[in-house]
Structure formats: structure tokens, C-alpha cells
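Whiteboard transcription, Tuesday session. T.W. wrote the C-alpha cells on the left side:
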């Protein structure tokens, strides 16, 4: 751990803007800035992976870029660490390599939907409850907070969200079994832990992904494995 002083920070500054100011100060003194990950700064890309005072993204249901300095008191000591999990090697300072999450998504493969011009809006009817459930799961921004928060380093909320998103849509049905088998196996190969219902993942998730996505993934995986054995 290295001590830095953050001076003249407005309560309206975001956490990342505070780090920008600390880095400007370091650069003006000819010192190395702190390396940290960020991109959209709007809570949608999932890049700003910091553990703040022991909590992924600093508090529940937010991203680091949407955390504001008014949540801290003048003179507070704030502990900032990179997201910790065995499959997240630290690249430098506060930046970890979350490529394992991308490899899980890639393992899921493509869907056989027609591409080209936009289809007619009513060509494939999706019941409202199914559409809502798919949209809820699709809100996952792939930030990795669920993994960093889990004592087991489990990626099951993240993978469950990706599996659930497509499992609720008609377009996701042809490859449904193959997709869940490949994604869960890639998750295991990457070294993520299993879920033992701590529910720390659900508590920190900035997209409010419910832990029920893990149930759907487990059910789909079991059914697909049985079919594989029978075949
Ligand atoms: S499930 Fe939530 S915490 Fe996990 S990667 Fe998706 S958005 Fe982030
Ligand atoms: S920088 Fe994109 S979600 Fe925080």
C-alpha cells in the first residue's frame, strides 16, 4: 500500500476525478501517476474496477465512476485496491486483466439469427414477461464486481446473467444447451470459484442483477449435461 494525499477535492468530484487530481499532482512533482482503469465514466462500460474500503466499487449498486466524493468525509483515509480474484492478474497498480470474463463470453459463441436489414418488429413475438426478464439480465455491464466481492471468487452471477439473457429470448433457443455448457466449462477452466450463496455478488452489482440468474444457469447446465450423456 502507498500513501497519497488528495488535496482540494470538491464533494461533487467523482472518485475517478479525485484520482485524476492526485495524478496531476504527482505528475507536477515528476512522480509516476497511479494506473487505474476507466472508459465511459457513465456507469455503462464496467471498466472502473476498484475495491474501495474493502467493497467492490465502494458501495452497493454503483460503479466507481458514479461514486462521488461527498460520500466521504474531509480527512478520511480511503483504501483503494484492484479487484481481487485468482483469474484477475494485476497488470499494474489498480489495473487487473479481466480477459477471463471476455473469454467466457466468447466461448458462448454466436446465435443463428439472420443479419442484414432490421426485421419487422412483430416478426418474432416475445411475451412481455420474457422480454422483461431478458432485459433485466442484459443490464450486466461485465464489470467483475460480483467476482471481486465473492469470497469464492465466483463468476456465477456474471455468467448467469449472460446465459439468462439469451435463454429468455426465442433467438437464444437453437444454441441454448451448447452455449451454457461452453460458458460454464470456460468459467471453470479460468479458475473461478463456485457459488455457495454468500450473495455478496448481488449486493454489489451495479446493474441489480438478481441471484436467480444463477438458478436458471444451473438448471440449464444440468439439463444440457444430461442430454449430452444420453446422446
Ligand atoms: S453481474 Fe453485476 S457485478 Fe457482475 S459483472 Fe455483471 S454488472 Fe458487474
Ligand atoms: S468507467 Fe465505465 S462504468 Fe465506470
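and on the right, the sequence the group agreed on:
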Amino acid at each position: 500500500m502507498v500513501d497519497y494525499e488528495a488535496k482540494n477535492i470538491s464533494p461533487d468530484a467523482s472518485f475517478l476525478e479525485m484520482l485524476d487530481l492526485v495524478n496531476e499532482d504527482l505528475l507536477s512533482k515528476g512522480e509516476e501517476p497511479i494506473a487505474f482503469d476507466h472508459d465511459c465514466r457513465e456507469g455503462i462500460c464496467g471498466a472502473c474496477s476498484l475495491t474501495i474500503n474493502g467493497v467492490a466499487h465502494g458501495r452497493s449498486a454503483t460503479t466507481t465512476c458514479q461514486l462521488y466524493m461527498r460520500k466521504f468525509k474531509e480527512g478520511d483515509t480511503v483504501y483503494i485496491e484492484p479487484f481481487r480474484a485468482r483469474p484477475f492478474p494485476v497488470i499494474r497498480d489498480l489495473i487487473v486483466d479481466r480477459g477471463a470474463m471476455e473469454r467466457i463470453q466468447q466461448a458462448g459463441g454466436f446465435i443463428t439469427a439472420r443479419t442484414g436489414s432490421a426485421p419487422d418488429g412483430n416478426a418474432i413475438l416475445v411475451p412481455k414477461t420474457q422480454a422483461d426478464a431478458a432485459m433485466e439480465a442484459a443490464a450486466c455491464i461485465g464489470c467483475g464486481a460480483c467476482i471481486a466481492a465473492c469470497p469464492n471468487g465466483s463468476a456465477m452471477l456474471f455468467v448467469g446473467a449472460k446465459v439468462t439473457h439469451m435463454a429468455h429470448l426465442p433467438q437464444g433457443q437453437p444454441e441454448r444447451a451448447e452455449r451454457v455448457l461452453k460458458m460454464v466449462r470456460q468459467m471453470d477452466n479460468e479458475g473461478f470459484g463456485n457459488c455457495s450463496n454468500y450473495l455478496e455478488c448481488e449486493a454489489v452489482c451495479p446493474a441489480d442483477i438478481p441471484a436467480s440468474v444463477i438458478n436458471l444457469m444451473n438448471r440449464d447446465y444440468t439439463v444440457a449435461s444430461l442430454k449430452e450423456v444420453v446422446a
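Someone added at the bottom: Residues 46, 140-146, 157-158, 161, 205-207, 209 surround iron/sulfur cluster (ligand 1) (CB under 6 Å).
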